[in-house]
Design goal:
Elements lengths: L1 E6 L2 E5 L4 E4 L20 E4 L4 H4 L2 H8 L2 E5 H9 L4 E4 L4 E3 L4 E6 L5 E4 L2 E4 L4 E7 L2 E5 L9 H7 L4 E5 L8 H11 L3 E5 L11 H10 L12 E3 L1
Parallel strand pairs: 3-4, 4-5, 5-6, 12-13, 13-14
Antiparallel strand pairs: 1-2, 1-15, 2-3, 7-8, 8-11, 9-10, 11-12
């Protein structure tokens, strides 16, 4: 499995059988170096309905024919935009041709700003993706919660992708505690630095995680790791 950080909470996950993009916020993202038109993928995973996570999902799906995988309400909104979807929900798992996706809880919100309307997009979520004998947990946008211990106990996580930006999600200290609960082989920070409100130092996260016995690495935008 190859994971490439495309900025904010967006990652490209490449397996032996498919390419997945998670939370493809590229257009309008001041940190993104990849345009939506450059993305080729088979599946698009959307953790919740905020615009910085739905991002370019519809446009990419229409251009590539990719299937959007999301929780039910978010998936149904995407389907209404004319794209293929696979609706799921928290606690549910499904075996896809490339591997397995399971949804977890996340403590956050999930509304899509449509002009002067806020559309209901269901519950926010995190996602565990398993393929080729490797497992990655994308926490979505979330605060710290005790059930992260269960996620770590029930999944041998190779990588945990954790928000650290504070204000809207966990900050650095809570993200370190999340990593302690999850016990991944590697913790990777996300959802930081895109805007002033979430401009924190990922190096601080890596240092504090190391002090807690967790290996952590902040990926540069465009950087990949193979697990």
């Amino acid at each position: 499995m190859k994971i490439t950080y495309l900025s904010h909470s967006c990652f490209l996950v490449e397996t032996s059988k498919a390419r997945l993009i998670v939370d493809p916020f590229l257009s309008g993202n001041p940190k993104a170096r990849t345009s939506a038109d450059e993305i080729e993928c088979d599946y698009i995973v959307v953790t919740h309905g905020h615009s910085d996570h739905v991002g370019d999902a519809i446009g990419i799906a229409k251009r590539t024919g990719a299937t959007i995988v999301a929780t039910f309400e978010c998936a149904m909104w995407c389907a209404a935009q004319g794209v293929k979807v696979h609706p799921m929900h928290i606690g549910g798992a499904h075996e896809f041709p490339f591997g397995r996706i399971k949804w977890t809880i996340a403590h956050h919100g999930s509304g899509y700003q449509d002009g002067d309307r806020m559309l209901y997009m269901g519950n926010p979520a995190g996602v565990v993706i398993g393929a080729d004998g490797r497992t990655v947990y994308h926490a979505g946008d979330t605060g710290l919660f005790m059930d992260m211990q269960l996620i770590g106990q029930m999944n041998r996580l190779d990588v945990a992708l954790l928000p650290i930006g504070d204000n809207f999600t966990m900050g650095i200290d809570d993200a370190v505690k999340a990593a302690e609960f999850l016990r991944p082989k590697l913790a990777v920070p996300m959802h930081y630095g895109t805007f002033d409100l979430i401009d924190v130092d990922p190096g601080e996260f890596a240092t504090k995680a190391a002090a807690a016995g967790i290996e952590a690495k902040a990926l540069e935008i465009g950087e990949s790791l193979e697990i």
